[in-house]
Each structure stands twice: as C-alpha cells, then as structure tokens.
Amino acid sequence: LVSTAKFTAASADGSVDVKFTFDGTAMAGRSVVFFENVYYTDKLIAVHADIDDEAQTVHIPLIFTSVKDKDTDSHMSLAGSDVTLTDTVAYRNLVPGKEYTVRGTAVDKETGEPLTDADVNGNSVTSSADFTPDTADGETTVDFHFNTKGLDDTTVVVFEKMFYGKAEIAAHEDINDKGQTIYIPSVKTTAIDKKTATKLTLAEKDIHITDTVAYRNLVPGEKYTVTGTAIDKKTGEPLKDDAGKDVTAKASFKAEKANGTVDVEFVFDGSTLAGKTVVMYENIYYNNKLVGVHADISDEAQIIYVPSVK
Q1: In terms of DSSP bridges, do strands 116-117 and 100-108 run parallel, antiparallel, or are they unpaired?
Q2: What is the pLDDT averaged over residues 229-253?
Q3: d(CA 63, CA 65)
Q4: Are 185 and 211 in contact (CB under 8 A)?
Q5: Residue 252 predicted with pLDDT over 90
Q6: Distances in Å between the alpha carbon of 229 and those of 51, 183, 200, 251, 254?
Q7: Entry pTM
Q8: At 56, phi and psi to the nearest 5?
Q9: Which of 4, 96, 189, 231 is spaced 20 to 30 Å from 245 by Cα?
C-alpha cells in the first residue's frame, strides 16, 4: 500500500498531507505504521520509518461479543417477562487510557429490523456503555433491559458498535453469530385422556392424561425438563388428588431440533373429581432455569373435563 503527494515548499519548514485510501475490512485487530520518504528530483533526501512510533501508527480495533440472559445464564430468555441481557464485548487493539463507547441494538433475526419493546412505547431495544481500558485487549459489558411480551418464538441478535468520540472504530453485526443470539421459546400444549382419546375423562381412581407439549425455538442438542401441574379451572389453584397432593407430572428430553414435541403423562386418583374442569399448565426448564411457560386458564387445548351425572 503506497501513496504519493507532490508539493512545493513555500518555506524551509512546513507540512504536507499524504492520503491513503484502502479497504480495511480484513484488517480488524491489526496496527498499521506509515513510513514516509521525501524525494527531490528522484533523489531520497529524508526518511521517517520508525516501526515503534505511535505518531505514525493507526490501530484498527476488533470486537466480538457473547450475550446471555442474566436470569437463565444461557442463550434463552423467557417470553412475557422482564429480562436483562448481558452482552460481553471482547475488544482487541485499542489504545489504552482513552475513553470509548459501546452502543448496542437488539435485532429481530427474522426481519433484520431493530427489536421493539412493548413496555416502552414501541421504542427500539438499545443500550450503551462507556469505558476506559487499561490494556489494548480486554472486555466490557453492555446490559439490555426490556420486556419480552409478545416475543414468543423470536430469535434476537445483539449488534454492537464501538466509538471513539463520535467516530465509529469497530462493529460486530453478524446476524448468524450464535454468540450474539438469544432464543425466546414458545410453548403450546394439547391434553388428551389416554383411555377415551378425548378431552373427557371418567371420575375414577386411575386417570391417565397425556399432555403433548409442542415447543419452538429451543437450542438444539441441549437437555430440558418439562414440569406440569393440573389446575382446577374454577379456583385457579393446583388440583389435589385424593391424598391431598398436587397433581403434577414431569419429563426430561433432549431437543434434537429447535421445534418439536414431548409428552408429559399425568397419573392420578380422580374418583372424587366429577364435575371438575382441569387445565394442564406446563413449564420448560434448562439447567433448572425457566425458559418456557404455557399457563392459559382458558386454553381449550389444555383442558380436560370430568363430567358428573346426577
């Protein structure tokens, strides 16, 4: 990479600008030192070529990020809740002792548009942080606070830019980078009585209900646990069996794909439950952290009816 400038010296002392124009997209994390030679009638008369001279050096920073949900400590967030995402921004090749600003934007991966927060009048989900590094290489964090209401089955990618003053000096905006990605699962369920293959069950001692839990947007290859609770629709409280215990069920599974189903089987004594309407609530956990919920008291798909005859 070379550049030249011709000039006529108006006095013995002075300065002249030499402009370099080049593609720096592949040079992130590198430092460039500019050497200069002065010629008079093609004869070399002056040189400045000090590889360690900071005045001759331009540093091209590199940043990359890894985002996690603060509550789940994973790349998954719970839908319909207030969440905090912590984006750890690793930087390389900054000038120590200078103040920098990191500005982040949460982006909907499907649309490529900034994510909006229903709780803040539809404004974009953004955040920023100022920091002064002690060393050229290090890390800083940026926290995003927003509500995930209505964001079931949404994949969020966090984009980051770094500024020195008003000048942008680095960016990490890869829509396909899993390290920058947060998954917000959705959960739907369908409860069926195993004996009748319908949504009606007989008030008897041995009731078997199969609740098929359909999930979307989990992280494939990971292990999850589903816990279910049968709810008395009239009271909104957990259903009790004849021993006075909550009617619950549990299943563990490995998500081979982001979208799939898992069956949860409820087995309980319902001989005194004639006339009850039962709703099956389901939670999905990853590493004991809640990442998915389906708890709609009015959802017909979750409901089992126990008829009574008089």
Answers
A1: unpaired
A2: 91
A3: 7
A4: no
A5: yes
A6: 69, 25, 18, 12, 21
A7: 0.86
A8: -95, 0
A9: 189
Q: Has residue 272 got a pLDDT over 90?
A: no
Asked whether residue 186 carries a pLDDT value surpassing 60, the answer given is yes
Q: Are 219 and 258 in contact (CB under 8 A)?
A: yes
**How high is the mean pLDDT of the chain?**
92
The two structure tokens encoding residue 249: 């069920």
Beta bridge partners of 208: 267
Inter-residue contact 188 to 214 (CB < 8 Å): yes
Structure tokens at 165: 């003053």
Query: Given the structure tokens 């124009």, which residue do they identify?
Result: 21
Calpha distance 277→200 (Å, rounded): 10
Please state the separation of Cα 96 from the chain's center in Å: 30
Residue 276 tokens, joined: 């009850």
164-167-168-169 Cα dihedral, nearest 10 degrees: -60
DSSP class per residue in the chain = ---------SSSS-----------TT-TT-EEE--EEEEETTEEEEEE--TT-GGGEEE--EEEEEEEETTTTBSB--TTSEEEEEEEEEEES--TT--EEEEEEEEETTT-SBPEEGGGTTEE-EEEEEE--SSSSEEEEEEEEEE-TT-TTEEEEEEEEEEETTEEEEEE--TT-GGGEEEE-EEEEEEEETTTSSSB---SS-EEEEEEEEEES--TT-EEEEEEEEEETTT-SBPB-TTS-B-EEEEEEE-SSSSEEEEEEEEE--TT-TT-EEEEEEEEEETTEEEEEE--TT-GGGEEE-----
pLDDT of residue 120: 53
Considering Cα of 51, then 54, then 55, then 57, what sign does the dihedral take? Answer: positive
Residues in the chain: 310
